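Slide 14.
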Amino acid sequence: MSSTVTNNGNKYIKMLQGNVFVLNTDNTTYAFRVMDKCNYLEHLYYGRKIRIDSADGLYEQHSFAPGNTISYDNGCEDFTLEDVCLEVSGIGKGDIRDPFIEVVLSDGSSSTDFQFVSAKIRKGKALLNTLPSSYDDTNNAEHLKITMKDRNSGIILELVYSVFPECNVITRNALIKNDTDEEIKLTRIMSNQVDFACTDFVFTSFRGAWTREMNKCSTLVSGGKIVNSSFTGTSSNRANPFVMLSKHNTTEDYGECYGFNLIYSGNHYEAVETNGLGKLRFVQGINPQNFEFILAKGEEFEAPEAVMSYSKEGFNSLSNNMHEFVREHIVRGEHKKKERPILLNSWEASYFDFNKSGLLKLAKEAKNVGIELFVMDDGWFGERNDDKRSLGDWEVNKKKLPGGLKSIATDIKKLGMDFGIWVEPEMVNVDSNLYRKHPEWAMDIPGKMHSEGRNQRLLDLCNKDVQDYVIESMTNVFSSADISYVKWDMNRIISDYYSKTLDKNRQGEVAHRYMLGLYRCMDELTKRFPNILFEGCSSGGNRFDLGILCYFPQIWASDNTDAISRVDIQNGYSYGYPQSTVAAHVSSVPNHQTLRRTPLDTRFNVASFGLLGYECNLCDMKKEEKLEIAMQTSLYKKWRSVLQYGSFYRVDDAGDVSDSINNTQWIIVSKDKKKAVGMYLQKLVKANWQHTSFRARGLNEDMLYNFYSLDTKINIKMFGDLINTIAPIHIKQDSLVHNTIAKFKKMNTAKESHKMYGDALMNAGVKLKQRFSGTGYNDDVRYFQDFSSELYFIEEATTIE
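Slide 15: predicted structure.
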């Protein structure tokens, strides 16, 4: 055993006597040591920041191994690796829990014995060579590289730990090197493993489906194994790679919790497992299902980078750690800190049925209501009049756009807006010129029936020729006009994993090699077009992950634009991803995904807690609706920096402890804590429930604030035939008289205006004016019905009047 340590004034990573490694962030500590007897890495601690001068008292003391277990060797009969918290584990030495790594050696065996060899501590953040990774331009990060070697075969395993102190985040990644003289087969490699000496945790994952992403699912870890994984070829809407472990009764603001994520966009695997000896193991990495990678002598394999954070102050604090990390160390490029534009997407207004004149008419309406970016969605290329043809044929349809992309982009620019387009570069239709010319480029199995998804097939991005085609065809499109924004879609999952470019014994490499090819395409195109704002999309949130965010600063969160569905979807995303990455649109009603009718202000209020856009036919909207949208865009621009880049908080009781599922309360606070925007949303009315509170979070306790809502007018028709309780004559609902009165007479709803200190706003909350409950209505009563919501604004004040 040896240890080579270089310490260039490192502040956050220390190696103590006895090969004890301590990694500190501003508020957390992570520690492990090299075990004396077997040179394995024993995990000691991960939690709130503590002082550690040695490993004394931090490791378990063993005298006799438990019965019916395996001892590492004859010199280690006092313990079994099954009963030790480890940093990395393999097969064959007594640890029968979920392994970190599995390798099949040339003799067919799979037992490994990775022992500590050396350690190096460096300033800065080491980047990965083959995969996207986090980065640091603050000069605060530090990293530790541990080198281990399999005692029998000589295979090298490198573990890299990177510390981001201000975010309270530590990342891990692994690299395996085949230093043997024979070919080896890697069948499993994780990116992170954290062992705990207790099992009293709740495991939270975010699951769902198309239009139903990011449902928070919490499960008590009482025994056995809980798995969160994707086998779709994407990070998936079924199971996002962001997960949490928390102590019982942890809330948004109190209690211990851990967050874990993976900088990867393909098949992933997260598992928590308890054993019979009181230990809990968490692992995260590439999904081992159908995975194997052959490494010849001298070859290497990089595992994706994993991200972890800890908070002793509940989920909100954990989320803010993750949000800051994503904003500062994942998202990059010109748009990293730039305010994002309000856009109008043409999809729900026209689907495939459009022409240039119709799009320009829609764009003019968009400009009139304050929209800044016009996006032409699917249908502009080839013979793309439905979803059955022309994917892969990236030439403009001159029947729809006679002057090509350049002409419509120029006309949009003349209106005073930027222009964007939709593409789906990874796909091909069988009914396309590209498929007819290059059927071998499609990902399918020769001679076997192929399972289709959305009438299309994936292009085989394992093939460099295909990658080159994607890069060059997209370069031609993006350079053909003044394009400011690109929505990159991917509308099917992988079913038949097969690449015609790989040998039959390498088909287990397809899923990962696809990701490597995709990342090459994205990396090259974002470098060629650094000024374009790219937005990721995969049938909505089927590929919402940190890997994509390394290239594209924002992602379309869901194809579901229904505000009531979206409030749950966006709430789920908020646990691991900041608002500056979550694209959200206002659409028409009845909603195209749910047929639900929600008020226009609620649709805006929910969407404004993301990157605001619109997806509706403004040409068909009433004058009153367009005036309301114009006011919405003006309001959003005023508060845009807070809404996109402020600190986000969820409020546990949502202002109503009796029915928190029915109510949602969010607040976003500016970095200087001088401004904040809050939202209170109610799904369904609760009869005769007049009073509720709005409780703030994240404010300066000692600062005096103005708390207020905006003037809102209510259409008198919303009260139905209650109008007859005040009218001198009987008025029939929806009659000419009723409509005439409604045109000129609007009802006020209660307006809030208070001056309070931050500590009062956060602890006592604001007692809001009563809701309508059937016994009377005036200007001091809130109209707050099914699917209602309201925004509240908080600004630094000077004195109490």
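Speaker note: The first helix runs from residue 314 to 329.
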